Protein: Dethiobiotin synthase
Organism: Sphaeroforma arctica JP610
Amino acid sequence: MLRSNGQRAARVLRLSSRSSQTHAAGDHLNIHNPTFQIYGANTDVGKTIVSAGLLRAHLRAKAKNGTNLSECRTAYVKPLQTGSIHDETFIAENVPSQLGQVHRKTLHFWDIPASPHISARAENRVIADNDVITGVKSALAALPWLREQPAKISGSDTELSSMTLVETAGGVLSPSATIRPQADVYRPLRLPVVLIGDPKLGGISSTLSAYESLIVRGYDVVALAVLDDTTNSDALTEIMRDVYPAHTPLSGTQPLNIVRLPEIPPPEVTDLSSWYATPEHEAMFDSLYRTVCAWQADHVREVTSLQSRGEGVLWWPFTQHQSVGGTDGSPVTHIDSALDDDFHVVEKNGDVVPLFDSCASWWTQGVGHGNVSMATSLAYAAGRYGHVIFPENVHTLAVQASEEILKAVGGKWGERVFFTDNGSTAVEVAVKMAFKKYISTATQKNAEFDTKTIPKLRIMAQSNCYHGDTLGVMNVAEPSVFTEGQHPWFECKALSVDTPTIECVNGKYHVTLPKSISGADDATVAIKAREDVFSLDRDNTPLYKQYTTHITDMLDQAHADRNTRGDVGALMVEPVLLGAGGMMWIDPLFQRAMIRVCRQRDIPVIFDEVFAGFWRLGCASTTQLLGVDPDISCYAKLLTGGVIPMSVTVASADVFDSFLGDAKADALLHGHSYTAHPMGCASVLTALQQYKASPNFDQQTQTLAESWDIAEVEKLSGHRAVHHAFSLGTVCVVALKSNEVGYSSTAGKRVVTKLRQEGVFARPLGNVVYLMCAPVTPKDKCTEWLKTLNRILESE
């Protein structure tokens, strides 16, 4: 708030009404409409003075080019205002109409001159943060030049086609009406920032702190302007040059532009028209304006060229480049930023559109994109450690992360944590652990076991499994599109087991049995209710005996063929839900039977929980769903909340002990340069804390509430276009009816295309369409997305 001889709130509303009309809120911003947010390093640093100066500079530039005063496309928005003297009034008085028309709007105001959270509570008018964002979007959408025609031109390096300023209240982290820091409240807009530095004693510190607070939240800071006599601005210039030589990755080697503005006039000066009109002062504000213009022009060039540049240098995973991009291929998505459950995507016309990340960024997303607590944790770890070598060393974050991992998923079995870099390598490590444990046990129990030559071993694995793209775990999978033709050394070394699956059709659950078990095509066994699927009472059914007999027979045959094909030295299970294999819900009874039969034969059990672990399916570990423990389990994806690559392989004490010996060759000789990197460990600690702090989390059971409305999903399973549907934890799966099923099917592509048009970014798995949220996502959001999917299916 600024001193002024302006009037009270009633006059502010009259001024606003002259330049704004009632219009529906716009759905999105556009990169071609230059809109900037004015933040202050503190309160009373001259934000509104700078806003007025920038607006005047813009109008001067337009006047020089002969633009009609009524067509200067200039606006000022103040979302939150306290006190009887309003900043909008100051703008009206110091950017008079004879300079050009400025559209002004104050959205929410309180009479008590205090921080918004204090004033709002005192006057019993607390405004929700979402309403503030909606109000800003509405105010921007109501601007005449946005209603008249789509934005096409952003201006030049020295002049903007339009200028809109959105000015905050107080400092960068000053509270909103809900007491949430304003930098977090306005983050959904992610407007480029002009930061006003603090010229007072101590202002250098507060300015740098404000700057870092914006950067860690993903804001682009266009310029730093300081109203002083060079004391603070000169010091800030030097500090920025030495400490922040490249203030963001987008700036290359360019430091932040710091612009010195004239000193704030003394309090007794109430009429600033002559102060603004001083040639020296005009030149200073013109300098800031040119900085803003140059940034806008560079930004538009960067954004509009990014897709074609990306197509020229990137090699995307799981992508046939011949069918992507260019004029004939499927479109390339430009993700400008991301927040909570959404990508913010730049469309061809420059609109920045939110899209629900329904594949959870390849199943990694856990705490929401752009999570400020996570960003702060990573910054802390980077600042304290960077990266440090790990073998035979400890650091606080690695030890604490390991302890919390074991508390969450270790149960009564897990005792050791081995860090790796991704899910595939975590499983590679698990294979080494399991085989060593198998050989160690065999040696102890069989004196004739040959320890000089490692025997040929196989892994019992589920058909349609996928454990990663490194060669060892590729060889665990049967031949498929993921393996055949991808590596000349690929050789299936698995004993593949056809798996029974759980399906919900017309709201009824049943087990679909493979022919190898039932001896018949399309054999099914009914299950009374969804909750019975995981019931241990099913262990007493004839089906359990049928499963154990089948698995025993397979292992007996494998043992008989051990000299030619190798004996089974480990069991690898994707517990409950096969992800990449097509989102198949495996019968827990069958997996429990496999595990128990293998245990009886001293075959180590590996759980690949890279996808399913850490509450993806509602539980920290699928051991809570299956009722049995592994010897080794692998975790990634949700482990770090979706922000940084890291994985762990958790092992029992017996597995760890099998590597103890006098020779180094007896140790587990596996690792990578960034093992247990501190930023990864910090992200683990933050992610686990946030999962448990979520309103979705039940502290007593240590489980998550179901994200998707089970009744609605069951209803969807009876749709004419749907073969079956179900939901587990954060995952909702809809398998479409199709003549061709599996990964090569294109049935899901049509639905996914329509989902994109409805604001949902999805990737199909053949004929399977799935929606996946984060463990912290509010359930009401999931309900809306499910309605969207249902509406699209109705149109099929």
DSSP finds 26 helices and 29 strands in the chain. The longest strand covers residues 74-82.
